[in-house]
């Protein structure tokens, strides 16, 4: 049942103008339009955009919005792909980009305190210069923010070894609808006093509270890393090779995979680039590993990894490149090129971040391909093999009337994934675009508890309404 | 305000006897007394003990207890030190020891599905034989259970590298008061569909629901490990050495410390054992590191660690021993001997698992010693340096009338720790014994939200009443 929210009145606009002076509040449609969508396809115009610079403004805003029943949508760089920041019920978009200060980095405590609008990649580079390390690295790392990462519990490449964003949040200040501030957690690396509200809010996607400050756990920066890119004849061979690596007792910080169609797209992308990329045309699957640790350890582990790959079932990889130092990023450039490269094969794509139990990855990839064949569409699969987190891409051409088939393929993919014991989303969230499927994964009892917990935080349902399990 | 619960009636006993036939339900005081306490000092007699063997029994039990307002206390091996399992309001103790089956270990999924009564250490040894690894290792690992570990979000030695229990729980089946079962999470290593109820229940200490099944994340077993025990002239020198290790880019799986008084107790313990233990009498502090990973990596990292320690400020350690393979456990035997050894110095002790930000460990240790001196008591501090998680022990002699001073020291310790931005508990929980201090750490707003979340799960307050923030 959709809640009906009132429109922003003239007095509401006056209130916001007073609270966010100058260009801190925007109302003109031509200004609002830039805040209507994210990296997904849905869009909706808010009634206003506000840009807080301090916690007190967020408190006053949420006191007012709670009383007046005005929807509130948090947003920073809006790199989300499932419409999580889209203001589908109008109301106010809260942009966190002016709360972008790193308040404290403490090399003794191994802790950083930040405002939510800090860009993750820039934060990480600042830390690395000081010998510190914040592991979470969603693909959007250079544009997305820590606040957005925490709100969505962002994953990324290094989750296999280091876990996801949730595992690196020690505490936060969170403003509730009504304006009250919760000070949760601490700078302690371990803290079990009371219920774990910190990890509940991490990943709650703006449906419960707004963050005004985050306390993050840091690690010592690994001294070195090495990466290995290997091409195999087919997907089974690649999976056997990966199993061999685990059997050798190695825990890579990243383990990415690419299927045949992904490699085909990369072959087009790399055709005119220097170097011999012919293996991209011949391989049926590829794996990309990264190991990190102390310099000598990484060097020897890199060799162990290579041996494990060469000694794996079949004839060993048909391509293998190991790189460290400045050359290493060249291998990761291949990985980062995937998403844009897929447009060489089709003008439109629908990419879903489903996850399955690790042992079901082959079935998921083959199943996706079968769905594509049945519906006359090409499909490409890549992603985080170590987590079973697949980026399943359905390629299509809207101009040839394939949009409907792509939608059918997406639905069939979700059915497949759930039948394998998987999840609709490993890291992007449910948001708008997977809402219709939510009840296929979560039963009524689970959704009921979630709804009642939401009521504790947000009894009037003003926080990111129209998303998730609502 | 204390809720008044009804006593168990004759018809209640009949109900329990029917639901838990044979010796599945106990009522005789001489049988109940064994279920009245845990590793802390508090005790209370329940009205009954029941021993479920399957989920349906837990459902029926919680349906009845919810209707009849009967307190329910979950318990397995009851190794908790803060009275978390003590049935202070009477009612029913639920022993999980008959739900002790490992239901599934999947080497492809890197997942195990277990019942809550499985003993953690036995589970881990079973995994290791298959090349798998479940990292959490509370000191009680060989006697405590996975259900208890998850309920308390147990920490342990390896948290520095691998995180705590919460970080290794992928999903669970949890029975709510009223009997409904929640199926939460999945076998996926990443899953962000809906609110994260799995991590909310991990660490909720039996106050929200009872677990009937747990899905745990596994890792490949590290091929090898090496440990280094080093003695230093004083605590500052030890801390500088630890900082040097982090600066070398090493991330030990464990980093334990021992202060002067702890070493003194160990010196007594080891006096008559073979080997040269004289350094225990001379050192002012000691550190114990463990590194794990592939064989060659660990070998070289062990040397890097040793170099970092020898090259640290001052004259380097006055004692250093590096061991791997069968000799390694000898070093950890020293660590495990601490708790019993402290009784060489005093017949009574109060041990608190406070945590502070990592950079405040020196102040915490020195502050504890100062409190002891002021009150005429000896104090010993050891624990997980890497997490800032201190086991602060106040040594006293009840027979000499020192119990009151010990209580004052405990209160002063909590004040000290909170003034350093620390927490009352890094891993043991609040339970009964730290309840009186809870409001010094958590403000009214935070406690209010916790209470209202508890109401969502347990509106009649029957789950582990009398503990935590209640």
Automatic annotation (TrEMBL), chains A, B:
Q: Which cofactor does it need?
A: FAD
KW Flavoprotein (keyword) present = yes
The record's Gene3D superfamilies line, in alphabetical order, gives: 3.30.465.10, 3.30.70.2740, Vanillyl-alcohol Oxidase, Chain A, domain 4
| FAD-binding PCMH-type domain mapped to chain residues | 42-221
A Pfam family that the UniProt record links to this protein? FAD_binding_4
Domain of life, per the record? Bacteria
Q: Does the keyword Disulfide bond apply?
A: no
InterPro entries with a match to the protein in the record: FAD-bd_oxidored_4_C (IPR004113), FAD-bd_PCMH (IPR016166), FAD-bd_PCMH-like_sf (IPR036318), FAD-bd_PCMH_sub2 (IPR016169), FAD-linked_Oxase-like_C (IPR016164), FAD-linked_OxidoTrans_Type4 (IPR051914), Oxid_FAD_bind_N (IPR006094), Vanillyl_alc_oxidase_C-sub2 (IPR016171)
- Its recorded name reads Glycolate oxidase
């Amino acid at each position: 049942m959709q809640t009906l929210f009132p429109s922003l009145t003239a007095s509401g606009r006056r209130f916001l103008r007073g609270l966010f002076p100058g260009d801190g509040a925007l109302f003109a449609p031509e200004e609002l339009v830039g805040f209507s969508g994210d990296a997904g396809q849905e869009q909706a115009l808010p009634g206003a955009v506000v840009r807080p610079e301090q916690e007190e403004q967020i408190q006053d805003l949420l006191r007012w919005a709670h009383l007046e029943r005005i929807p509130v949508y948090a947003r920073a760089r809006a790199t989300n792909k499932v419409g999580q920041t889209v203001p589908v019920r109008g109301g106010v978009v809260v942009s966190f980009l002016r709360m972008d200060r790193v308040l404290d980095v403490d090399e003794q405590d191994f802790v950083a305190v930040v405002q939510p609008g800090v860009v993750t990649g820039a934060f990480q580079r600042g830390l690395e210069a000081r010998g510190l390390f914040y592991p979470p690295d969603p693909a959007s790392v250079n544009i997305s923010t820590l606040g957005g990462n925490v709100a969505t519990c962002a994953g990324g490449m290094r989750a296999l070894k280091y876990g996801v964003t949730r595992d690196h949040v020690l505490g936060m200040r969170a403003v509730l609808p009504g304006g009250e501030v919760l000070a949760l957690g601490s700078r302690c690396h371990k803290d079990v006093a009371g219920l774990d509200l910190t990890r509940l809010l991490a990943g709650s996607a703006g449906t419960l509270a707004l963050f005004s400050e985050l306390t993050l756990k840091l690690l010592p920066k690994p001294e070195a890393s090495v990466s290995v890119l290997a091409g195999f004849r087919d997907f089974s061979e690649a999976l056997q090779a990966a199993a061999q690596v685990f059997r050798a007792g190695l825990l890579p910080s990243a383990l990415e995979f690419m299927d045949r169609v992904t490699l085909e797209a990369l072959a087009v992308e790399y055709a005119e680039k220097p170097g011999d990329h012919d293996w991209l045309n011949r391989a049926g699957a590829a794996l990309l590993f990264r190991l990190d640790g102390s310099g000598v350890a990484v060097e020897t582990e890199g060799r162990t990894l290579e041996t494990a790959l060469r000694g794996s079932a079949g004839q060993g990889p048909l391509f293998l490149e190991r790189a460290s130092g400045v050359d290493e990023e060249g291998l990761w450039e291949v990985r980062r090129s995937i998403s844009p490269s897929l447009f060489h094969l089709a003008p439109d794509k629908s990419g879903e971040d489903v996850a399955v139990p690790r042992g079901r990855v082959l079935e998921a990839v083959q199943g996706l391909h079968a769905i594509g064949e049945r519906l006359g569409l090409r499909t490409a699969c890549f992603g985080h093999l170590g987590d079973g987190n697949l980026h399943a891409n359905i390629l299509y051409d809207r101009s040839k009337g394939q949009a409907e088939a792509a939608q059918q393929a997406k639905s069939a993919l979700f059915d497949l994934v759930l039948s394998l014991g998987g999840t609709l989303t490993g890291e992007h969230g449910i948001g708008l675009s997977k809402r219709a499927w939510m009840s296929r994964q979560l039963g009524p009892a689970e959704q009921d508890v979630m709804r009642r917990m939401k009521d504790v935080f947000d009894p009037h349902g003003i926080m990111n309404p129209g998303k998730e399990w609502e």
